[in-house]
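User: Could you check the structure of this?
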Amino acid sequence: MAKKVLGRGLGAFFPDYDKEEGSEKSTSENTKTAVPIEPAERVNIVLNIPVDHIRPNPHQPRTEFKQEALEQLSSSIRRHGLIQPITVRYLGERRFELISGERRLRATKLAGIDEIPAYIREANDEEIIAFALIENIQREELNPIEISLGYQRLIDEVGYTQSEVAERVGKNRTTVTNMLRLLQLPDFIQASLRDESISAGHARALINLKSAEDQQKILNQIVAKSLSVRQTEDLVRSYEKKNEQTSAKKKEENKRNPFLEELSKRLRQNLSTKVNIKPKGKGGEIKIEYYSEDDLERLMQLFDEMA
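Assistant: Sure, the predicted C-alpha coordinates are below.
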Protein backbone atom coordinates (compact mmCIF):
# COMPACT_ATOMS: atom_id res chain seq x y z
CA MET A 1 0.00 0.00 0.00
CA ALA A 2 1.21 3.47 -0.85
CA LYS A 3 2.63 5.22 2.19
CA LYS A 4 1.16 8.68 2.82
CA VAL A 5 2.39 11.27 5.25
CA LEU A 6 -0.04 14.18 5.48
CA GLY A 7 0.56 17.55 7.01
CA ARG A 8 4.31 17.13 7.46
CA GLY A 9 6.96 19.46 6.15
CA LEU A 10 10.20 18.42 4.53
CA GLY A 11 11.86 18.62 7.91
CA ALA A 12 10.27 15.27 8.71
CA PHE A 13 12.40 13.62 6.04
CA PHE A 14 15.07 16.22 5.30
CA PRO A 15 16.25 17.46 8.73
CA ASP A 16 18.55 20.12 7.29
CA TYR A 17 15.49 22.10 6.17
CA ASP A 18 14.59 22.95 9.77
CA LYS A 19 18.16 23.34 11.00
CA GLU A 20 19.12 26.05 8.54
CA GLU A 21 18.38 29.67 9.30
CA GLY A 22 16.83 32.17 6.92
CA SER A 23 14.79 31.62 3.79
CA GLU A 24 17.87 31.59 1.54
CA LYS A 25 19.75 28.89 3.45
CA SER A 26 17.64 26.01 2.21
CA THR A 27 18.56 26.86 -1.36
CA SER A 28 22.29 27.27 -0.80
CA GLU A 29 24.34 25.44 -3.39
CA ASN A 30 27.14 24.96 -0.85
CA THR A 31 25.06 22.81 1.47
CA LYS A 32 24.34 19.19 0.61
CA THR A 33 21.02 17.67 1.54
CA ALA A 34 21.20 14.93 4.16
CA VAL A 35 18.58 12.29 3.34
CA PRO A 36 18.21 9.79 6.20
CA ILE A 37 15.82 7.47 4.31
CA GLU A 38 16.07 5.18 1.32
CA PRO A 39 15.21 6.68 -2.11
CA ALA A 40 12.28 4.28 -2.51
CA GLU A 41 10.64 5.84 0.53
CA ARG A 42 10.65 9.30 -1.02
CA VAL A 43 7.78 8.36 -3.33
CA ASN A 44 4.08 7.79 -2.82
CA ILE A 45 3.97 10.31 0.04
CA VAL A 46 2.56 13.82 0.45
CA LEU A 47 4.86 16.54 1.82
CA ASN A 48 4.77 20.31 2.14
CA ILE A 49 7.46 21.51 -0.25
CA PRO A 50 8.84 25.05 -0.68
CA VAL A 51 7.44 26.43 -3.91
CA ASP A 52 10.87 27.79 -4.85
CA HIS A 53 12.23 24.24 -4.88
CA ILE A 54 9.88 23.08 -7.62
CA ARG A 55 10.84 23.65 -11.24
CA PRO A 56 8.16 23.74 -13.95
CA ASN A 57 7.32 20.72 -16.04
CA PRO A 58 9.19 21.18 -19.35
CA HIS A 59 6.62 18.91 -20.99
CA GLN A 60 3.60 20.87 -19.76
CA PRO A 61 0.87 20.50 -22.42
CA ARG A 62 -0.98 23.56 -21.22
CA THR A 63 0.35 26.84 -22.63
CA GLU A 64 -2.26 29.38 -21.56
CA PHE A 65 -3.37 30.30 -18.04
CA LYS A 66 -6.11 32.89 -17.66
CA GLN A 67 -5.03 35.54 -15.17
CA GLU A 68 -8.54 36.11 -13.79
CA ALA A 69 -9.01 32.40 -13.07
CA LEU A 70 -5.56 32.25 -11.42
CA GLU A 71 -6.43 35.18 -9.16
CA GLN A 72 -9.71 33.53 -8.15
CA LEU A 73 -7.93 30.27 -7.33
CA SER A 74 -5.21 32.19 -5.49
CA SER A 75 -7.82 33.93 -3.34
CA SER A 76 -9.44 30.59 -2.53
CA ILE A 77 -6.10 29.02 -1.59
CA ARG A 78 -5.25 32.01 0.59
CA ARG A 79 -8.52 31.60 2.52
CA HIS A 80 -9.01 27.85 2.58
CA GLY A 81 -5.67 26.32 1.64
CA LEU A 82 -4.98 23.94 -1.24
CA ILE A 83 -7.31 20.96 -1.06
CA GLN A 84 -5.66 18.75 -3.68
CA PRO A 85 -1.85 18.39 -3.72
CA ILE A 86 0.17 18.89 -6.86
CA THR A 87 2.26 15.99 -8.20
CA VAL A 88 6.06 16.12 -8.44
CA ARG A 89 9.08 13.89 -8.82
CA TYR A 90 12.20 14.17 -6.67
CA LEU A 91 15.36 15.18 -8.57
CA GLY A 92 17.82 15.10 -5.68
CA GLU A 93 19.50 17.93 -3.75
CA ARG A 94 16.13 19.11 -2.42
CA ARG A 95 14.89 19.83 -5.90
CA PHE A 96 11.63 18.67 -7.41
CA GLU A 97 10.07 18.78 -10.87
CA LEU A 98 6.39 19.40 -11.39
CA ILE A 99 4.44 16.62 -13.06
CA SER A 100 0.95 18.09 -12.85
CA GLY A 101 -0.77 20.97 -11.12
CA GLU A 102 0.97 24.02 -12.60
CA ARG A 103 -2.13 26.17 -12.24
CA ARG A 104 -2.29 25.32 -8.52
CA LEU A 105 1.43 26.01 -8.14
CA ARG A 106 1.14 29.39 -9.86
CA ALA A 107 -1.88 30.34 -7.77
CA THR A 108 -0.07 29.35 -4.56
CA LYS A 109 2.88 31.56 -5.49
CA LEU A 110 0.48 34.37 -6.35
CA ALA A 111 -1.09 34.00 -2.91
CA GLY A 112 2.33 34.55 -1.32
CA ILE A 113 2.40 31.09 0.28
CA ASP A 114 5.88 29.58 0.67
CA GLU A 115 4.98 25.88 0.76
CA ILE A 116 2.60 23.65 -1.14
CA PRO A 117 1.42 20.09 -0.46
CA ALA A 118 2.83 17.77 -3.12
CA TYR A 119 2.42 14.09 -3.88
CA ILE A 120 5.83 12.64 -4.76
CA ARG A 121 5.96 9.84 -7.28
CA GLU A 122 8.48 8.13 -9.52
CA ALA A 123 8.35 9.05 -13.20
CA ASN A 124 10.70 9.16 -16.17
CA ASP A 125 10.57 11.81 -18.88
CA GLU A 126 8.16 9.81 -21.03
CA GLU A 127 5.80 9.21 -18.12
CA ILE A 128 5.85 12.89 -17.19
CA ILE A 129 4.50 13.83 -20.62
CA ALA A 130 1.72 11.27 -20.25
CA PHE A 131 0.89 12.14 -16.63
CA ALA A 132 0.69 15.88 -17.32
CA LEU A 133 -1.46 15.42 -20.40
CA ILE A 134 -3.80 12.86 -18.89
CA GLU A 135 -4.38 14.86 -15.71
CA ASN A 136 -5.17 18.04 -17.64
CA ILE A 137 -7.49 16.19 -20.03
CA GLN A 138 -9.34 14.57 -17.17
CA ARG A 139 -9.76 17.98 -15.58
CA GLU A 140 -10.79 19.48 -18.93
CA GLU A 141 -8.22 22.26 -18.46
CA LEU A 142 -6.77 22.18 -21.99
CA ASN A 143 -8.09 23.83 -25.12
CA PRO A 144 -8.51 21.57 -28.20
CA ILE A 145 -5.20 22.57 -29.78
CA GLU A 146 -3.29 21.89 -26.55
CA ILE A 147 -4.95 18.47 -26.39
CA SER A 148 -4.10 17.77 -30.03
CA LEU A 149 -0.48 18.82 -29.53
CA GLY A 150 -0.34 16.66 -26.41
CA TYR A 151 -1.57 13.64 -28.37
CA GLN A 152 1.00 14.35 -31.08
CA ARG A 153 3.79 14.57 -28.50
CA LEU A 154 2.78 11.21 -27.04
CA ILE A 155 3.12 9.79 -30.55
CA ASP A 156 6.35 11.60 -31.49
CA GLU A 157 8.23 11.62 -28.18
CA VAL A 158 6.90 8.57 -26.34
CA GLY A 159 6.29 6.40 -29.39
CA TYR A 160 2.63 5.64 -28.73
CA THR A 161 0.31 4.59 -31.52
CA GLN A 162 -3.04 6.36 -31.85
CA SER A 163 -4.68 3.33 -30.23
CA GLU A 164 -2.27 3.50 -27.28
CA VAL A 165 -2.89 7.23 -26.89
CA ALA A 166 -6.64 6.57 -26.85
CA GLU A 167 -6.22 3.87 -24.21
CA ARG A 168 -4.03 6.02 -21.97
CA VAL A 169 -6.32 9.06 -22.03
CA GLY A 170 -9.56 7.09 -21.83
CA LYS A 171 -10.88 8.09 -25.27
CA ASN A 172 -11.81 6.06 -28.33
CA ARG A 173 -9.44 6.05 -31.28
CA THR A 174 -11.80 8.03 -33.50
CA THR A 175 -11.77 10.88 -30.99
CA VAL A 176 -7.96 10.91 -30.95
CA THR A 177 -7.81 10.83 -34.75
CA ASN A 178 -10.27 13.72 -35.05
CA MET A 179 -8.32 15.78 -32.53
CA LEU A 180 -5.06 15.20 -34.42
CA ARG A 181 -6.74 16.41 -37.61
CA LEU A 182 -7.17 19.83 -35.98
CA LEU A 183 -3.42 20.35 -36.33
CA GLN A 184 -3.90 20.41 -40.12
CA LEU A 185 -6.08 23.52 -39.90
CA PRO A 186 -4.77 26.99 -40.84
CA ASP A 187 -3.25 29.08 -38.06
CA PHE A 188 -6.22 31.47 -37.89
CA ILE A 189 -8.60 28.60 -37.05
CA GLN A 190 -6.18 27.14 -34.50
CA ALA A 191 -5.97 30.59 -32.88
CA SER A 192 -9.77 30.66 -32.55
CA LEU A 193 -9.66 27.24 -30.88
CA ARG A 194 -7.01 28.43 -28.44
CA ASP A 195 -9.00 31.48 -27.36
CA GLU A 196 -12.20 29.36 -27.30
CA SER A 197 -14.00 31.49 -29.90
CA ILE A 198 -15.05 28.21 -31.51
CA SER A 199 -15.24 24.59 -30.38
CA ALA A 200 -13.56 21.49 -31.76
CA GLY A 201 -16.89 20.60 -33.39
CA HIS A 202 -16.88 23.86 -35.33
CA ALA A 203 -13.29 23.26 -36.40
CA ARG A 204 -13.98 19.71 -37.59
CA ALA A 205 -16.74 21.08 -39.81
CA LEU A 206 -14.35 23.65 -41.28
CA ILE A 207 -11.82 20.94 -42.16
CA ASN A 208 -14.13 19.79 -44.95
CA LEU A 209 -13.66 23.05 -46.86
CA LYS A 210 -10.71 23.05 -49.28
CA SER A 211 -10.51 26.82 -49.59
CA ALA A 212 -8.90 28.83 -46.77
CA GLU A 213 -10.93 31.78 -48.00
CA ASP A 214 -14.20 29.89 -47.45
CA GLN A 215 -12.95 28.71 -44.05
CA GLN A 216 -12.28 32.32 -43.04
CA LYS A 217 -15.73 33.45 -44.24
CA ILE A 218 -17.54 30.77 -42.27
CA LEU A 219 -15.34 31.30 -39.21
CA ASN A 220 -16.33 34.97 -39.23
CA GLN A 221 -20.00 33.99 -39.35
CA ILE A 222 -19.59 31.49 -36.51
CA VAL A 223 -18.14 34.17 -34.26
CA ALA A 224 -20.43 37.00 -35.36
CA LYS A 225 -23.67 35.00 -35.23
CA SER A 226 -22.75 32.52 -32.47
CA LEU A 227 -23.58 29.63 -34.79
CA SER A 228 -24.00 26.18 -33.29
CA VAL A 229 -22.00 23.21 -34.58
CA ARG A 230 -25.09 21.94 -36.44
CA GLN A 231 -25.65 25.32 -38.07
CA THR A 232 -21.98 25.41 -39.05
CA GLU A 233 -22.18 21.95 -40.61
CA ASP A 234 -25.23 23.04 -42.63
CA LEU A 235 -23.42 26.19 -43.77
CA VAL A 236 -20.36 24.18 -44.80
CA ARG A 237 -22.54 21.82 -46.82
CA SER A 238 -24.14 24.76 -48.60
CA TYR A 239 -20.68 26.13 -49.47
CA GLU A 240 -19.57 22.72 -50.74
CA LYS A 241 -22.68 22.42 -52.89
CA LYS A 242 -22.16 25.93 -54.24
CA ASN A 243 -18.54 25.16 -55.09
CA GLU A 244 -19.56 21.94 -56.86
CA GLN A 245 -22.14 23.83 -58.90
CA THR A 246 -19.60 26.50 -59.79
CA SER A 247 -17.08 23.86 -60.86
CA ALA A 248 -19.71 22.06 -62.95
CA LYS A 249 -20.74 25.36 -64.53
CA LYS A 250 -17.15 26.12 -65.53
CA LYS A 251 -16.81 22.70 -67.11
CA GLU A 252 -20.06 23.21 -68.98
CA GLU A 253 -18.89 26.63 -70.17
CA ASN A 254 -15.68 25.07 -71.44
CA LYS A 255 -17.66 22.45 -73.29
CA ARG A 256 -19.78 25.14 -74.90
CA ASN A 257 -16.87 27.36 -75.84
CA PRO A 258 -17.83 28.50 -79.38
CA PHE A 259 -14.23 28.63 -80.55
CA LEU A 260 -13.51 25.08 -79.36
CA GLU A 261 -16.78 23.82 -80.78
CA GLU A 262 -15.92 25.28 -84.20
CA LEU A 263 -12.44 23.68 -84.12
CA SER A 264 -13.95 20.34 -83.14
CA LYS A 265 -16.42 20.57 -86.00
CA ARG A 266 -13.68 21.36 -88.57
CA LEU A 267 -11.53 18.47 -87.32
CA ARG A 268 -14.47 16.05 -87.46
CA GLN A 269 -15.14 17.09 -91.06
CA ASN A 270 -11.50 16.85 -92.14
CA LEU A 271 -10.82 13.55 -90.37
CA SER A 272 -14.25 11.97 -90.79
CA THR A 273 -14.28 10.74 -87.19
CA LYS A 274 -15.33 11.88 -83.73
CA VAL A 275 -13.07 14.58 -82.25
CA ASN A 276 -13.26 16.12 -78.77
CA ILE A 277 -11.24 19.12 -77.56
CA LYS A 278 -10.94 19.38 -73.77
CA PRO A 279 -9.33 22.44 -72.14
CA LYS A 280 -6.98 21.91 -69.16
CA GLY A 281 -5.58 24.99 -67.48
CA LYS A 282 -3.77 27.04 -70.11
CA GLY A 283 -3.64 24.08 -72.51
CA GLY A 284 -5.79 21.07 -73.19
CA GLU A 285 -6.06 17.82 -75.11
CA ILE A 286 -7.53 16.69 -78.47
CA LYS A 287 -9.14 13.26 -78.47
CA ILE A 288 -9.46 11.58 -81.89
CA GLU A 289 -11.35 8.30 -82.09
CA TYR A 290 -10.77 5.41 -84.53
CA TYR A 291 -12.82 2.26 -84.89
CA SER A 292 -10.51 -0.29 -86.49
CA GLU A 293 -6.92 -0.83 -87.56
CA ASP A 294 -7.86 0.18 -91.08
CA ASP A 295 -9.45 3.36 -89.72
CA LEU A 296 -6.26 4.13 -87.78
CA GLU A 297 -4.18 3.57 -90.93
CA ARG A 298 -6.46 5.95 -92.80
CA LEU A 299 -5.95 8.64 -90.17
CA MET A 300 -2.18 8.17 -90.25
CA GLN A 301 -2.19 8.67 -94.01
CA LEU A 302 -4.16 11.90 -93.55
CA PHE A 303 -1.62 13.16 -91.01
CA ASP A 304 1.24 12.28 -93.35
CA GLU A 305 -0.40 14.28 -96.11
CA MET A 306 -0.82 17.28 -93.78
CA ALA A 307 2.83 17.22 -92.75
